[in-house]
Structures are given as structure tokens and as C-alpha cells.
Design goal:
Layout: E1 2-6, H1 8-14, H2 17-32, E2 36-37, E3 42-45, E4 52-60, E5 66-74, E6 86-94, E7 100-105, H3 106-125, E8 132-136, H4 140-152, E9 157-161, H5 165-178, E10 182-185, H6 189-192, E11 198-201, E12 220-223, H7 236-240, E13 243-246, H8 249-255, H9 257-264, E14 273-276, H10 277-281, E15 295-298, H11 303-320, E16 324-327
Parallel strand pairs: 1-7, 8-9, 8-11, 9-10, 11-12, 12-15, 13-14, 13-15
Antiparallel strand pairs: 1-16, 2-4, 3-4, 4-5, 5-6, 6-7
Helix pairs in contact: 1-3, 2-3, 2-11, 3-4, 3-11
Length: 335
């Protein structure tokens, strides 16, 4: 059985941010229409909690008809090393005989699809003329979110804050050379979000970096960094003040510290979540009601994002003869 291997550089070549935003919009529609299944992820932690192995299975029906899983390690201390913090693979299988189709680098898929999902949320929730972006964080997701926001809104100014401060300053220096827009560094998160129309929180912080008393009217927030029940990037006031949308309701109710901690404090209930992004895209729920509202998209990441991205990459790789085919068996042997 021939299986196509696609490495990280090929993923970057085969999946642009613009393309991925379109793929993610379709993927969220599939979830909302019942054409995709996205079970909760399973995480296996090392005893010392320095890293974990995450497993995210799912399937997509209809014209695609694939099942698959993303298996990825998360070692956040890798920020201090040459190694990526997230490493792994997406495995795709067809649904007639269960034959494996592809093994694709998961680190790049995760990086691109996470920001693209925020791009979809921003497209549907931010004010149309939003032009001032604040990014809290300076890692891979900061870079990808800058790229995604530029695809969906007329961004002309970016403020950045990150710890350590020298990492944030280096990020600003790199991106100022890459893009012909004004990008500056701020000494505090409060200063960075002042006058922002869009805020992306993409840190590895366990404690709030975005505070409700600093939020301006009209702003849209993409909260991305915290993805377990005990960590959050937004304080309770910021969540209470916002119209909250999620990528997957089940995930938010079980995994999102940004939601679960304010809920445990009694500040909000489950009804504070207005719905899933797919339902918003399909018009099943209402989005922003006026330009002055604060909207919040809490991103946790779900398997359909990885599978839809991987299938798009696989189909494009077949057309361009990208990747490498290897024999991995699969045919029954007569014995």
C-alpha cells in the first residue's frame, strides 16, 4: 500500500494562509451541519508535566470521506531550544477499506490552521474597518496570526507585547522588515491593546495577560494560547464583557480555562457561550450586533481543522507530485 509522506517545508508550500482560511471556513460548516465528528482530544502527560502527547481523532463525511488522527507532542520549554514546541504528524485514511493515504507534518499544519481559524472568526466578528491590531506573544502563533489578520482586515498598525521583552522586540524588528506597515513594541500588555480593534492573545502564560478594564469598545479578541482548564490568558472581567464564541462547545466546556475559571467563580454560566463558529457562519446564531460590542473567539483547536487541512494538502500534493510515496503494507497476506 502506497502512502504519501509530506514534510514541513512542503506543507508551507502547499497550504498558504489565504487557502487555509477558506479550508477552515468550510471545515467549521461541516461540523455545524453534522458532516464531521470531532471527539475530545486525549492527552498523555509525562510524569514531570514537562510535555505531553496529544491525540485528536476525527472523520469527515460527504465528498471527502476520510478518517484520521493528529498525534502531536507539546513541549513548551522547547522555546529555549532549537526544537519546535509542537511536533508530530497527521495520519489520513480512506473510509472504504481503511487504507492509509498520507502522513503529513503536524507542526506546520497546526501553526497555519490555528491562525487561519482565528482569521475566519475575525472575518465574521470584527468590525469591517478594523485596522489596528494588538498581538500579545511573539512566537510562531504571533507570526501566523499577523499573517492571517492581514488577509481578512485592512491592518495598518500593529502593537506587540511579549515576555521576555527582548523576544518581543526581536519579533517586531523581524516583522517590520517583512511587512510595509507600522509595527511597534510596547512595554506592557495594557499599553499594547490600547486603541486596538483586534487583539490576538497567543502566549504560553498560565495567568491572564489581557484584562477587562483595558478593553475598548468595538474590539474583537482571538484567545488562542491557553488550552487546558487550569490556564487562561483573559481575566474574568474581559470574558464577562465579551460576546463569546467557540470552535467547539464540548471542548470549551471541558478544556477552556478562559471559560471554566470565570464559570467556577460564578461570574458566568454555560449560556455565556453564544455558540460555535460554524453555526455563526451558517447563520444559525447571531454575531456582532453593533460596532461597539466586544466579541471574543476562544480557540482550542479541533481535529477537523487538522484533517481538512491535511486532506487539502494531500490532494494538492497528488496534483503536483509532491511528497514521497512509500510502501507500508495493508494488503492481507494468505497464510
Amino acid at each position: 500500500m502506497k502512502v504519501r509522506l509530506i514534510h514541513h517545508l512542503e506543507v508551507k508550500q502547499l497550504l498558504s494562509m489565504k487557502e487555509c482560511i477558506e479550508v477552515m471556513e468550510k471545515a467549521f460548516k461541516l461540523v455545524a451541519s453534522g458532516d464531521a465528528e470531532v471527539p475530545l482530544r486525549t492527552s498523555l502527560w509525562l510524569p514531570d508535566k514537562t510535555g505531553l502527547l496529544g491525540m485528536m481523532p476525527g472523520y469527515i463525511t460527504g465528498d471527502t470521506n476520510i478518517i484520521g488522527i493528529k498525534v502531536i507532542s507539546a513541549f513548551l520549554k522547547n522555546h529555549e531550544t532549537p526544537y519546535d514546541s509542537h511536533q508530530g504528524m497527521v495520519l489520513l485514511f480512506e473510509t472504504k477499506h481503511g487504507c492509509p493515504l498520507a502522513i503529513i507534518d503536524a507542526g506546520q499544519i497546526t501553526a497555519i490552521r490555528t491562525a487561519a481559524s482565528s482569521g475566519v472568526a475575525t472575518k465574521h466578528l470584527a468590525n469591517p474597518d478594523a485596522s489596528r491590531l494588538a498581538i500579545l506573544g511573539s512566537g510562531t502563533q504571533a507570526s501566523k496570526h499577523l499573517e492571517a489578520m492581514l488577509e481578512v482586515r485592512p491592518i495598518n498598525h500593529v502593537s506587540v507585547w511579549s515576555l521576555p521583552l527582548d523576544h518581543g522586540r526581536a519579533f517586531v524588528e523581524r516583522k517590520s522588515k517583512q511587512y510595509e506597515i507600522e509595527i511597534d513594541f510596547k512595554e506592557s500588555s495594557q499599553e499594547a491593546v490600547k486603541d486596538a480593534d483586534i487583539i490576538c492573545t497567543v502566549t504560553s502564560s498560565s495567568d491572564p495577560v489581557l484584562f477587562g478594564n483595558t478593553l475598548e469598545e468595538c474590539v474583537h479578541i482571538n484567545a488562542v494560547g491557553a488550552c487546558i482548564p487550569t490556564t487562561r490568558e483573559l481575566d474574568t472581567e474581559a470574558v464577562v464583557k465579551s460576546r463569546l464564541y467557540v470552535d467547539c462547545l464540548e471542548s470549551a466546556l471541558n478544556e477552556s480555562g478562559d471559560f471554566l475559571i470565570p464559570k467556577a467563580e460564578g461570574a458566568i454560566g454555560e449560556d455565556h457561550i453564544l455558540g460555535e463558529l460554524g453555526d455563526l457562519i451558517l447563520g444559525k446564531i447571531k454575531g456582532r450586533q453593533n460596532e461597539n460590542e466586544i466579541t471574543l473567539f476562544k480557540s482550542l483547536g479541533i481535529s477537523v481543522e487538522d484533517l481538512a487541512s491535511a486532506y487539502y494538502i494531500y490532494q494538492k500534493a497528488l496534483k503536483q507530485d509532491a511528497g514521497v510515496e512509500v510502501e507500508l503494507g495493508g494488503l492481507r497476506e494468505e497464510g
